Amino acid sequence: MTGLKPSTNYTYRVSANNSATPEQTFTTASAAQLENSSFDDWSIEGSGKQALYQPWAEGGNKYWDTGNRGATTVGASNSTYVTEGGRTYANLESKYIVIKFAAGNIFTGEYLQTDGTNGILGFGRPFTSFPTKMQFDYCYKTAPVNRSGKWSDSYANYISKTMFDNMMGQPDSCQIYIMLTDWDEEEFKGTKYPFVLRTRPSELHLMNLKDEHVIAYAQMTQGNDVNEWTTETLTLDYRIKNRTPKYVLVVASSSKYGDYFIGGEGAHLKLDNINLIYE
What we know:
By secondary structure, the protein is mostly beta strands. Helices cover 3% and strands 44% of the residues. The protein contains two helices and 24 strands. The strands form seven sheets. Strands 7, 12, 13, 14, 16, 19, 20, 22 and 23 form a nine-stranded antiparallel sheet that branches. A five-stranded antiparallel sheet has the order 8-9-24-15-21, with no helix packed on it. The radius of gyration is 20 Å and the shape is globular.
């Protein structure tokens, strides 16, 4: 059904063949939005080349995070913000930082720990609504893939070795996606998170679209230059229609395969004004 108002009580009756059920009621879910979805709020920890850029206001709620806490252990933040032309936006750049390739990224969740040169992330934020679309503004500059990690057999569940081996020299792609899930919580150091992502090959634990807990999903992958601010609208595919989401995960990356440390130095994604649409 479409055209219903959010957070509203409705009364209904089913009738057929001149008979009808008694009146019953239901309440629609709220039309929830993501916090700081315009990326106007940022804070900076430290100073100089290793200043840590954080996508929340000083003392504010940490709804979004980036991989900067890992990047700044050896170099500079590559997920920052820029204010120009009357807008403040997330500025995500793919760089080779001293010893390893790092894609610029931002996600709903929390960076938990740096594990050697790998990251451990807590993905997802509580969410129980049913948006039909996600809209956002973006620009993108691609670059030839010139960095690649070392193949690990643990990658085989997520990416084929042929694809992994053939990316060098190809145009890099950005990726932006939304996922509604009802994951079971996972524990890390005594605290529970919706999903704990690990990039170390020996403990690899990445997103899998075949996961039975994925209720709805939509994504954009772009491998061409988009030089002007462009509004994109993604329609969520609800694979499961009789369960309520528990979490929302939104991820944006300047290099789609950054989890495998593959990408092109100089790939650059600008992101602004994420809006969830309800119909």
